[in-house]
Design a protein that fits this description.
About 45% of the residues are buried. With about 325 residues, the chain is of the alpha/beta class. The chain has 10 helices and 16 strands.
Length: about 325
């Protein structure tokens, strides 16, 4: 089978299409024929070495497809089932070994491409809006990268909770998508100072929570738009890691709270995974949340897909198709 392999950490050129043996499922594993793999910034971090991996390895952490074979003890599934997953390394390939306890069934009537598009980003948006800071009517929040995969989903979920949403984007096209998702106010971060614009919009009240996946370029100013005892949620670092912070800064700016969450800790148990994936898939199936697949690339063009993602040229979800 074909797989995108990494022999050493580096730029997008580090990814190579290799021919490797099709794996056989072991105990508790499913062999899944891939329909679509999700592209996420965690893939970039693993490729570059920001999140070091043992070499060589097959990239990719998310996908959906059809169960082709089952190992002993892979209960709850059968050959031909449509399944989706996230947090399973090796998903940039034609076939993937998925632990049965990390796979979820794709609901009848849902395309596997949609399922692949919502596992990581959909469940991330869900825990951000429901757990990290449970949004409610009257809350004000800032969502950076509002036209990205998580951003578009998070805006929609925030509006379902009755929150007022400010978001940042770079182009008119992205602004249109953010507004269609429900954003109340859109700021062009490449033209305006988002701190000043946010404070104009929110006034003395300031914001209850900032959802920041950009990191280095936005973090410091994000602290300045929070109300007393407001919450900074740093859940990514597309512009680079945030420099070390003097914790007394949080006190000086209003006894602020700061958290650095990630999805694995929110789907740690089988019950957690089933409940959160079920909630997100339910929202999508019922039409409460719309999923935008902004681009698809053949598996062989993983380099171009990474370049587009890192260059902030993408909107919504990017998928790799075998």
């Amino acid at each position: 089978m074909k797989a995108i392999r990494i022999q050493s950490h580096g730029g997008s050129d580090a990814m190579k299409v290799d021919e490797v043996p099709t794996p056989q499922p072991g105990k508790g594993q499913l062999l899944v024929k891939l329909d679509a793999a999700g592209l996420n910034f965690v893939d970039v971090y693993q490729r570059s070495g920001l999140y070091p991996q043992q070499m060589p390895f097959t990239l990719g952490n998310e996908g959906a497809g059809t169960v082709d074979a089952l190992g002993e003890g892979a209960a709850g599934f059968k050959k031909g089932d449509k399944v989706a997953w996230t947090g399973v390394l090796g998903s940039y390939a034609e076939y993937v070994l998925v632990p049965a306890d990390r796979a979820v069934l794709v609901p009848s009537g849902m395309e596997t491409k949609i399922a692949a598009a919502i596992m990581l980003q959909g469940m991330t948006a869900h825990y951000l809006a429901h757990d990290t800071y449970p949004l409610k009517k009257g809350d004000w929040c800032l969502v950076h990268s509002g036209a990205g995969g998580v951003g578009l989903l998070l805006i929609q979920m925030a509006k379902l909770h009755g929150a007022t949403v400010i978001t940042t984007v770079s182009t008119e096209e992205k602004a249109k998508l953010a507004r269609e998702a429900g954003a109340d106010h859109v700021i062009f971060y490449n033209k305006d100072d988002f701190e000043k614009e946010t404070l104009k919009l929110a006034g003395d009240r300031k914001l209850d929570v900032v959802y920041d996946a950009v990191g280095k370029d936005t973090f410091d100013k994000g602290l300045n738009v929070l109300r007393r005892r407001g919450l900074m949620v740093l859940y990514g670092q597309s512009s680079g890691p945030v420099p070390p912070l003097q914790l007394n800064t949080l006190n000086a700016k209003g006894s602020l709270f700061l958290t650095r969450p990630s999805l694995p800790h929110h789907i740690f148990t089988r019950q957690d995974l089933e409940q959160r994936a079920g909630a997100v898939m339910g929202m999508v199936s019922q039409g409460k949340v719309k999923v935008r697949i902004g681009a698809t690339f053949p598996l062989s063009q993983a380099k171009q897909a990474h370049d587009a993602l890192e260059g902030r040229k993408t909107t919504g979800k990017v998928l790799l198709l075998p």
